[in-house]
């Protein structure tokens, strides 16, 4: 005889709790409309992301482009419109996870508290429809035990591979969605590998459906592509920051990991050059 897990029971309780309407405040069906209803005027690239139904999104964004705002809108909208949903917000550290969660909580307040909150904490929000938003550091041991409908990873390029891979099983039972947000951070790690798994899609040509030919929706936006960021302000930072760091943070350039002995291009060239070399036979071993 098999017994339901505690997590499954909790999800069922939250679903039952949501069966009775608790508020007359209507929440827009579409995330773009929800964003506008709380006073956000989304940039064109943000509209593309919010309108997409793709279950896996990876956003490579320059600093101050509004990627955390997109994550916050998606988190709150999912919690308000899908009863019993679990939204998990993770980041390299607890402070970073709290920052995105605080934006999400502020949007919930600006929306007029459409649903009462059963619990409201500095790192979590539980609603009367059974949905919840939790903010945690992206550490594998702290994220075990969740079944997640939406996973948002902020500053994903700084999250260790082991911790990211340790979170993924939480999406299996729910067929949950993923949103990876980050600026580049060297040519290594899962964020780099996922981004380069296929040619990146320009915002205007991005596939906005659950296309079978694309595992991920990839969108890049540089800081100089956002209207509210002035070129003269960027130039101030260019002259006060190391050039490589500036290009990475604002222009989304994938540069070699700082401190590496060899560049990524040098390693790739060496591997390509050695493709046709036969192994050296010494006794029974190949070298």
Estimated radius of gyration: 22 Å
Work out the number of β strands.
10
The total number of structural domains is: 1
Q: Strand content of the residues, in percent?
A: 15-25%
The residue-averaged pLDDT reads 82
Determine the fraction of residues in helical runs and give it as a percent range. Answer: 25-40%
The top level CATH class name:
Alpha Beta
Shape: globular
- The ordered string of helix (H) and strand (E) elements is HHHEHEHEEEHEHEHEHHHEE
Short description:
The protein is of the alpha/beta class and 287 residues long. The protein has helices at 6-17, 31-37, 44-51, 67-81, 94-110, 140-143, 161-167, 189-195, 231-240, 243-251, 264-273, and strands at residues 56-61, 86-91, 117-120, 124-127, 132-137, 150-153, 177-182, 217-221, 281-282, 285-286.
List the helices and strands and how they pair.
Blueprint (H helix, E strand, L loop, with lengths): L5 H12 L13 H7 L6 H8 L4 E6 L5 H15 L4 E6 L2 H17 L6 E4 L3 E4 L4 E6 L2 H4 L6 E4 L7 H7 L9 E6 L6 H7 L21 E5 L9 H10 L2 H9 L12 H10 L7 E2 L2 E2 L1
Parallel strand pairs: 1-7, 1-8, 2-5, 2-6, 6-7
Antiparallel strand pairs: 3-4, 4-5, 9-10
Helix pairs in contact: 4-5, 9-10
Describe the structure.
By secondary structure, the protein is an alpha/beta fold. The protein has a single domain, classed as Rossmann fold. It contains 11 helices and 10 strands. β6, α7 and β7 (about 175-180) form a beta-alpha-beta unit. α4 crosses α5 and α9 packs antiparallel against α10 (about 245-250). The protein is globular. The N and C termini lie far apart (about 55 Å).
